[in-house]
Write a structure and sequence with these properties.
9-stranded mixed beta sheet; Rossmann fold; about 290 residues; alpha/beta
């Protein structure tokens, strides 16, 4: 049975910290934007943070993981600019809802898009690591920075993302109990079933983790989050979440919550492809309001 230590081992996960190098603060329409530079393992990493205006004290916070979508130049700016499959930019929306929200560039994205995904992933795989393992490590470093801020309530921090950001969010929550609640969209599916269906090639090479399926699968990873609250949103016409693959992963994670307790919710949208819907957005905001607000 997969446990957090074994999952960390498979990811070749290395804990790391983030040190603030620089911060530029701007007033925007309805929110405050901070453009950050964080030193993560010797690399200067760009981040964007949105927060409400004119609020004192500590606030709940969300670590946002950006998606892939083959837009390598975008990275963390997804928080501010949105994507075609998001209803609107999540950063301003979450600030208006009362959250401090942070996103950073993942390796090979945004300002870190200096080499290709294939170039980076192959070099890591040949040395016994994975690109997603490096991404999860950087997300954890960003989480540490978020928790250290004097405007963040450290026991009320959630994780959120769509597509690649979905995977990053619930994989980080699986190995880091400081994530109090996680909501993820459009990428939760049993990987072994994806391979059997021939649907796995829709994922980038970043997601390749040698030996993962010998130890567990997506449902087993999400099960590690129990009893902390989790919201899973999928579109039933999404090629990355075929119903059979979702059902198999769901049965595994459902069994874990039945055993350990905690709140587990799923929103499944018939006829919906790889995109956020208005129902998903409402569900996410209601989920975080209940769990973090």
């Amino acid at each position: 049975m997969l446990n957090a230590d074994r999952f960390r081992e498979l990811l070749a996960f290395t804990p790391r910290s983030a040190i603030l190098i620089d911060r530029v603060v701007e007033d925007r329409d309805g929110f405050v934007l901070e453009t950050l530079r964080l030193d993560i393992a010797g690399t200067a990493v760009r981040g964007f943070l949105t927060r409400p205006k004119a609020v004192s004290g500590r606030l709940p916070a969300i670590l946002f993981a950006h998606s892939h979508g083959d837009l390598y130049h975008l990275g963390a700016e997804e928080l501010l600019l949105g994507r075609s499959y998001l209803l609107d930019p999540p950063g301003p929306a979450l600030a208006r809802a009362g959250y401090v929200t942070l996103a950073i560039d993942m390796p090979v994205f945004g300002e870190r898009a200096t080499v290709s995904e294939s170039f980076a992933a192959k070099a890591l795989l040949w040395s016994g690591k994975s690109l997603i393992g490096e991404m999860v490590g950087d997300q954890q470093a960003a989480l540490g920075y978020l928790l250290s801020r004097d405007d963040v309530q450290a026991d009320r921090v959630g994780a959120f993302g769509i597509s690649m950001g979905c995977t990053l969010s619930y994989w980080l929550a699986a190995i880091d109990p400081r994530i109090a609640a996680v909501a993820h969209l459009c990428c939760f599916a049993d990987l072994r079933t994806m391979v059997a269906l021939g649907a796995h090639d829709g994922h980038g090479i970043y997601l390749t983790v040698p030996g993962l399926l010998t130890a567990g699968d997506a449902g087993d990873i999400a099960a590690l989050i129990a009893p902390r609250s989790q919201l899973i949103c999928i579109g039933e016409a999404d090629s990355l979440t075929p119903p059979l693959a979702v059902d198999r992963a769901w049965q595994t994670v459902r069994a874990a919550y039945d055993q350990r307790g905690g709140r587990l919710d799923k929103l499944s949208e018939p006829g919906v492809g790889h995109r956020e819907t208005a129902r998903m957005r409402r569900a996410v905001l209601e989920f975080f309001d209940r769990e973090l607000g």
